Automatic annotation (TrEMBL):
Pfam families: AAA (PF00004)
InterPro entries assigned: ATPase_AAA_core, Lon_Prtase, P-loop_NTPase
Residues of the ATPase AAA-type core domain: 40-176
Name the UniProt record assigns to this protein: ATPase AAA-type core domain-containing protein
GO-annotated molecular function: ATP binding; ATP hydrolysis activity; ATP-dependent peptidase activity; serine-type endopeptidase activity; single-stranded DNA binding
Transmembrane segments: none
Any one GO BP annotation for this protein: mitochondrion organization
């Protein structure tokens, strides 16, 4: 079963192979005691599949998965809670995750940590440094429930960033960094049908094969995967209008720059 999980990841995310191999090894190493990895930073350009890969890994393995966008977060209490003496105080994201899943080793996904807001009074980076250090993680106190210590040392933290230089050196040093390359043309040919399949599933439509000509066309474009999904959805709608079914998808259903007609007028 473990081998099948990672074979699926390799097939669906061929450009993530180095990270897939690492996670495979750690899963095999710890299969008798429960999955846990040191903090991992997934570095790569936007819309390359970082979040999708992490969620898919959790889905295939059955590991509880908690997502938190760090873009714009300016205060540590988002992660570590707010003292009850404050109005509207509540537990932070870490304690809330433990309460929700009630397991010692969830996978906590921190998206875009290079975009946290810097506030010298309440800098969330200080909280991250403690959360990502094994010694301090063994006795974590949420500010909202200060009389209870949580051992979060078995939590697997996966984080993403687009710009490594935006992170301080102490924060960088907490992570194993995996740089994800842009997929080459052949890898895109393998990924595009999976994006099509996942889109049909999301829309509640019957799964059908992506025509080879459409697959090759999409693999040739310089669109990122987010753009591929958007344009694919638009094209499926055009196929329905023109031929009555999304299964009749064709290359000419895509509105590419080369196909647009720009009408020129005259100015006085």
């Amino acid at each position: 079963a473990i081998a099948q999980v990672f074979a699926t990841l390799s097939a669906e995310f061929p450009h993530f192979q180095e990270l897939t191999d690492f996670l495979h090894g750690q899963t095999m190493l710890l299969k008798a005691v429960g999955f846990s990895v040191p903090p991992v930073l997934i570095l790569g350009q936007p819309a390359i599949g970082k979040t999708h890969f992490s969620a898919r890994f959790a889905e295939l393995t059955g590991i509880p998965f908690a997502f938190k966008s760090m873009a714009g977060v300016s205060d540590a209490f988002v992660l570590t809670g707010l003292d009850p003496s404050w109005k509207n105080s509540k537990m932070g994201f870490i304690a809330s995750t433990f309460l929700r899943y009630q397991v010692a080793n969830p996978l906590i996904f921190l998206d875009e940590i290079d975009k946290i807001s810097r506030d010298r009074r309440h800098d969330p980076e200080h909280a991250l440094l403690e959360l990502l250090e094994t010694q301090t993680a063994r006795n974590f106190f949420d500010e909202h429930i200060t009389n209870v210590a949580l051992d979060i040392s078995k939590v697997s933290f996966l984080a993403t960033a687009n710009d490594l230089e935006a992170l301080s050196e102490p924060l960088r040093s907490r992570f194993l960094v995996f740089t994800i390359p842009a997929p080459d043309r052949e890898q895109r040919r393998r990924i595009v049908p999976i994006l099509h399949r996942d889109l049909l599933k999301q829309l509640g439509l019957r799964e059908t094969s992506l025509p080879t000509a459409v697959r090759d066309f999409l693999a040739e474009q310089d669109w990122d995967f987010r753009q591929v999904r958007h344009r694919l959805r638009q094209a499926l709608g055009r196929a329905c209008v023109r031929r009555g079914s999304p299964e009749a998808l064709r290359v000419d259903d895509f509105d590419t720059p080369a196909r647009r007609t720009v009408r020129m007028g005259f100015s006085l």
